[in-house]
Amino acid sequence: MYARLNESVDLLCSQIHPNGDIYPYVQLIETLWKTDVSADLDFQRTYRKYWRLNAARLGTQFVSAYFAYLEKLKRTDHIVLERVVQDLFRVPTHGDGRQALQFSFASKMLHMLRPRLPVYDSMVEAFFFLPFGRQSEKTERKIERLLESYRFLTTEYGRVLQEGLLRPAITIFRTRFRVGSNYTDEKIIDTLIWKFVSFGRSGAIRDGAIRYR
Q: Which uninterrupted H or E stretch holds 189?
């Protein structure tokens, strides 16, 4: 699995567009601690586009509460993902008052505050074959399952870095894009996985651009 990423890194890097995939993230990381994100509309616009909040079509009440919560957490030393998930779940995600679990956006919020933590989304879920759950799954059970998967990610990313399993790919990425320390190795892993799954879904494996061995 990691061998495929190392072998495909040049191809994956060719699919990465700095203006959309790298620079906005660096800008967000550098600006986060210098501004009130609950009021900074430029920060919010960049964040919403980069982290795909816009694509999720969430209501204005949720988006406003999300950035207010992010600002609040900047002054919090001990941040617990489960608490973030539960607090966000209490806020209606749509104008009609509906609530929907937003685990991925909670993990992205945590990553912004602690950039060495992983991001959880459908691409990571697909790459590691993490269980999706059922449509009828109760919210409490879904949160428990997602937290279990997130703990796995945290441990696995640590193992990957400690054992150097993606060192070749990370080195090539850093050399090619000249990213600094604020673009953590964990974030590079996330970027490569996102591009690998996205590229695979576009037909790269079928067309032979990426080959399993």
A: helix 185-199
pLDDT tens per residue across span 190-208: 999 999 998 877 665 555 5
What are the tens digits of pLDDT across the range 6-24? 999 999 999 999 999 999 9
Which distant-in-sequence residues (6+ apart) come within 8 Å of 45 by Cβ? none
Q: What is the DSSP letter of 209?
A: S
Cα pseudo-dihedral 203, 173, 17, 194, rounded to 10: 40
**Residue 91 · residue 99 · CB < 8 Å:** yes
For residues 11 and 8, give the distance between their C-alpha atoms in angstroms, rounded to a whole number: 5
Distance CA 9, CA 66 (A): 34
Q: Is the separation of the CB atoms in 86 and 139 below 8 Å? A: no
Look at the pTM and tell me if it is higher than 0.85. yes
